[in-house]
Amino acid sequence: MKYKSQKIAYWFFALAMLLFALQLVYGFIMGFDRIGIQGLHDIIPFNVARAVHTNLLVVWLLTGFMGAAYYIIPEEAQRELISPKLAIVQLVSLAVVGVIAIVGFHFNHWEGRKFLEIPRELDFLVVVNVLLFLGLILGTLFTGKRKTTTALVLSMGLLFAALLYLPGMIWFDSQVMDSFFRWWVVHLWVEGVWELIMGGILSFLLIKLTGVDREVIEKWLYVIIGLTFLSGVLGTGHHYYYIGVNKIWLIVGGIFSALEPLAFLAMALFAINMYRKGEKSHPNKVALFWTIGSSIVSFIGAGILGFAHTLPQANLYTHGTLVTASHGHYAFWGAYAMIVLAMISYAMPNLTGRKRYMMKTGSAAFWLSNIGILGMTAAFGVAGIAQVYMERKMKMEFMTVQNEISIHFVILLLCAAMFTTGIIMFIYDFIKYGRPTDEALVDQKTKAPEFSSKEEVFELN
Amino acid sequence: MLSKSQARAFFLGGTVVTFSIFIGLTIYSFMPNKDQSNYTKLDKQVVRGKEIWETNNCMGCHTIMGEGGYYAPELTKVIDRRGEGYVKAVLTSPIPWAPNGRKMVAYNMNEKDAQAMIAYLKWVGNIDLNGFDRVVSPLAKANQ
C-alpha cells in the first residue's frame, strides 16, 4: 500500500465478510423453509429471514464499496485520508446501526417494504453515517494532488447512492405511489448509480492489473456509465408495467430496459479487451479472475437474464415469480459481490505485504462459489419457469404449484452448499492472511515496479 | 476515434436528458386524470390497513401487485377470490395458518385491524394493473 490510512479499508472488508457470512445463514433458513423444514419458524419466520437476507446483502455490499473507496481514493488523490479516526467512527456507527436493524427485524420492527425494511428512525442514522463517509471521501479527493476520472466516477456513484436513498424514506398512503418511489431507490441503485461504483472500482483494478494507459481505460469508463444511465434510468419503467400506473411505461420501460444489457456487454468487452491489451502481467491472478469474472457474470446475470423477462409481453407472466429470484441472484453476484471480492483480493497482498497471489484456496474459492451460484440460478430459473406455466397458464393453485416445484429447492440447497464452501475458503484466507501491517507501506521513492516483465506466480501453498 | 472529452460529454448529456425525461414521465403518471388506482377512494381505514401491512412485513412472504417474497400467494385480488370471511379468519387466527403445510405467522388480529386489512386489500383489488390482474393466477379465476 502507498498510504497508511488505506489500512482502514481492511476493517470495512472485515465487516463486509462478517455480514456476507450471516447473509448466507439466513439464505439457508429460507431454503429449508421452502422444502418444508420449518423448525425455526417460531423464532425466525420466512419474512424475517428474507428481510435479514436481503438487507444484509445491501449492507455488506455498501460496506465493501466503502472499503474499496477508502483504499482507492487516497491512492488516486495521492494523499492520506483526511481523518482516519473519523473513518473508524463511521465504521463502528455503521456496524451499530446494522446490528440494531437486524435484531429489530426479529421483533417485528421494520418498514415491511421489500429491500427497504430498515425502519425510518434508523434511516436518519444511516443518512448521518453516509454523510460522514462522503465528507471523508470527497474531502480527501478534493484536497488531493490529483482528481482522476476513476476517483470522480466512484465518488459520484457513492454520492448519488446516498441521494437516492431519500425517496425511500417518504411515507405514501397509496400502495401504488409507495411502490413507484421504492423503485427510485432500488432500481436506480442497482441498475444505475451502483454501476458507477462498479465501473469506478473496475477501472481502478484494470489500471492496476493490466497496465493499460489510464486515459484509454477512463475514456471507455465514461462510455460505459453513459450507456448505463441512458438505458437504466428510463429502464426503471420495467418495474412500472403492472403496479397501477399509466400504460406509457409499457412502451418506455420496454424499449429502454431492452437496451440495458448493452451497458453490461460493453463492460464485459471493455474488461476483456483491456486484459488482452495489457502487455505486462500482474502476478495477482486471483484478483484478475474476480475482476474479469465480475464483468462477464454481470453481463449474463444482469444483462441476459434480465433481458429474458424484461419485455412487457413476457413480464406479464413472469412478474412476481421465482424467475425474478433467478435473475436477481446471478445479477447481484456478478455485478456487485464479485467486484467487492475482486477489490479485496487485490488489496489484501498490498495491505499485508504478503505476496500471496495465486493460492490454491483462492482459486478454489473462485471456482466453487461461481459454479455453486450458477447452479442456484439454474434451480431458481427452472422452478420459476415451471411456476409460470403451472400457475399462470394452467391456473393451478399457488401452494399446489409450490409443492410441485419444491424438488428444485433441494437442488438449490445443494448448489448453495457448494457456493458457501467457496465463500468459507475466501473468508478463511481473509482471516488468516489479511491483517494489514505498516511494514507493507511502500516507499514512493524506492518503490519497486508493480508489474513483472514476465509472468510471476507465487505458489506459496 | 472518440476522445475522452467526447466520451464525458456523452455521459453527462445522456444523464441529463434521460433524468429529465424520467422526471417528466413521473409527473405525467401522477396527473389526476391518469390515476388508475382510485386514489380518491383512499380513506383512513385503507391507510390503516397499509400501515398494518407494512408493520407486519406481509410483503416478506406474500406478493401484492406482483411484488414481494414469492413464498406465499399473491394477494392483489384475494378478497374477490376467497371472500372477506376467509381472509378475516386467517388474520384473526391465534394459531399459525398452514395451508399445504407451509406455516404463516399467527397474527391473532382484533376485529378493527382485520377490517382495516380487508379495506386495504379491497382497495388494492380495484387498481387497474394494465392486464396483470387478468393473467396472474389464481387472480385469473376472479376474471373468468
UniProtKB/TrEMBL annotation, chain B:
Which Pfam family is one of this chain's hits? Cytochrom_C
Q: Could you tell me which residue ranges the Cytochrome c domain spans?
A: 44-125
Q: Where are the transmembrane segments?
A: 9-31
Q: Which UniProt keywords apply?
A: Heme, Iron, Membrane, Metal-binding, Transmembrane, Transmembrane helix
Superkingdom of origin organism: Bacteria
Q: Name one GO molecular function term.
A: electron transfer activity
User: Know the name of this protein?
Assistant: Nitric oxide reductase
List the source organism: Flavobacterium enshiense DK69
